[in-house]
Design brief:
By secondary structure, this protein is of the alpha/beta class. It is built from twelve helices and nine strands. It has one domain: Alpha-Beta Barrel (TIM Barrel). Helices cover 45% and strands 15% of the residues.
Length: 329
């Protein structure tokens, strides 16, 4: 089976705290490492009460100290929100702390409205337009290229593995042009999955760091002892997805039995989109779902996304998923 990785949004649970969310993520990462996962990524989100991964590099340092061998990284850093120089310093420092384990996934979408853009003191639209140049600058800084400008000693020579992330065709084209690995956010935006993969593979130009395309696709996964239990646990994610799409995001809520029965058709349509790239159920059900997803996408690597309100159930899902798929580290 191809490598399996984990994407963590660092959710804050209803009745819980940011500190507890960070502790749960560290525990989950340690379990993922023990189970044999390839990477553990944290996503950058800001201004959301229910997500605690905004200070992504700090969260990764916390997870790095809770683990010893699994690759850890950003899935991703939304580069328009940041100065490339500072990101080079941060991730170069992470590589110094955890040598050979650091991934830097880069996204062009800011994930920010006008209020957040003001809070970040960034012209998000302008910064998005310079995204390709900023990616090239980051690569030059990690390579220690003097042409990058003012030296960033923490970054020069750092063995940070850079990725381009996306949910449209733009990232696929850029990753192909720069010869970088590419990860597609199919777990929440599956519409262009196959087209993006095809463009990336067809247009890929080998680089000093990658001689052939490496494509990773995301899938929602919750594994439990039975299909019914997994569907029950997954209702937490369904509530979060509906809340986000209807403009009412909040903290992670406890699961609800037969949650979908209470929803209007428009909300069910939203969930059907998410469910189209999901494997939720018993180990056998999840194994079949992931195998089919790999066959359909021809991905080189899969990254799973899915949290549960009960932290122990989340860790158990990670363990059961790997055991079901038969992945070996």
């Amino acid at each position: 089976m191809i490598p399996l990785s984990v994407l963590d949004l660092v959710p804050v649970r209803e009745g819980g705290s940011v500190g507890e969310a960070l502790d749960i993520s560290a525990r989950t990462a340690a379990a993922a490492e023990k189970a044999g996962y390839n990477r553990y990524w944290v996503a950058e989100h800001h201004g959301m009460e229910g997500i605690a991964g905004g200070a992504t590099s700090v969260v990764l340092a916390h997870i790095g100290h809770a683990t010893s061998s699994i690759r850890i990284g950003a899935g991703g850093i939304m580069l328009p929100n940041h100065n490339p120089y500072v990101i080079a310093e941060q991730f170069g420092t992470l590589d110094a702390l955890f040598p050979g384990r650091i991934d830097l996934g880069l996204g062009r979408a800011a994930g920010a409205d006008g209020r957040l853009a003001y809070a970040l003191r960034k012209d998000i639209v302008k910064a998005s337009e310079t995204f390709p140049n900023d990616v090239v600058e980051l690569r030059a800084r990690f390579a220690g290229d003097p042409a990058a400008g003012v030296a960033a000693p923490q970054a020069a020579g750092a063995q940070v593995q850079m990725w381009i992330l996306g949910s449209s065709l733009y990232g696929a084209q850029l990753a192909a042009m720069l010869g970088l690995p590419y990860a597609f956010a199919s777990h929440f935006a599956p519409a262009l999955l196959h087209q993006a993969a095809a463009i990336y593979r067809e247009r890929f130009e080998p680089s000093e760091t990658l001689d052939k395309p490496h494509f990773m696709a995301a899938i929602n996964v919750i594994t439990a002892e039975s299909d019914d239990e997994a569907r029950y646990l997954a209702s937490t994610n369904e509530q979060a997805f509906v809340a986000l799409r209807t403009g009412t995001p909040g903290r992670m809520k406890p699961p609800i039995r037969n949650y979908r029965d209470s929803l209007p058709d428009v909300a069910l349509a939203m969930l059907d989109q998410m469910r189209s790239v999901s494997a939720i159920g018993s180990p056998e059900t999840v194994r079949e779902g992931i195998v089919a997803f790999v066959a359909r996408t021809q991905a080189d690597e899969i990254i799973i996304s899915g949290s549960t309100y009960d932290p122990d159930a989340q860790i158990r899902s990670v363990e059961l998923t790997m055991a079901a798929v038969g992945q070996q580290s």
